[in-house]
Amino acid sequence: MAENDLTINGLQQTVDDWICGIGNGYFAPLTNMAVLAEEVGEVARVMARDYGEQSWREGADRGDLGDELADVVWVVAAIANQTGIDLNEAIRKNVDKKTRRDKMRHKNNPKLNKSK
Fold it and tell me: Distance between CA atoms of 67 and 61, rounded to whole angstroms?
């Protein structure tokens, strides 16, 4: 992996290269979905304890939020690769959809505009 910023397409290629080389192949898509749920749970555990009301029990592995988020992104890229999704294009379309749908929604939300 280059030391420079990684593009989304570069991420997908890096994940594919690693999985097909070091990882010895992809897990089945449903297995990767289960792995994704597991990784999201690890993000939730760190968030609940570092930013929520939960506390770490003494001696617990505190985890690293950045590492846990990277695990989520990794598995998302793996699922995209094995299902033929170009994440770069999918994200571009998703941002366009959100922009059209929510152009004024959040600006007009009184819950978000405390000064109104």
Answer: 13
Token couple for 102? 């929510």
Neighbours of 82 (CB within 10 A): 16
pTM of the model: 0.86
pLDDT tens-place values along the chain, 116 residues long: 456 789 999 999 999 999 999 999 999 999 999 999 999 999 999 999 999 999 999 999 888 999 999 999 999 999 999 999 999 999 999 999 999 998 888 888 888 887 64
Cα 99 to Cα 95: distance, rounded to the nearest angstrom: 6
With contact defined as beta carbons under 8 Å apart, do 46 and 68 qualify? yes
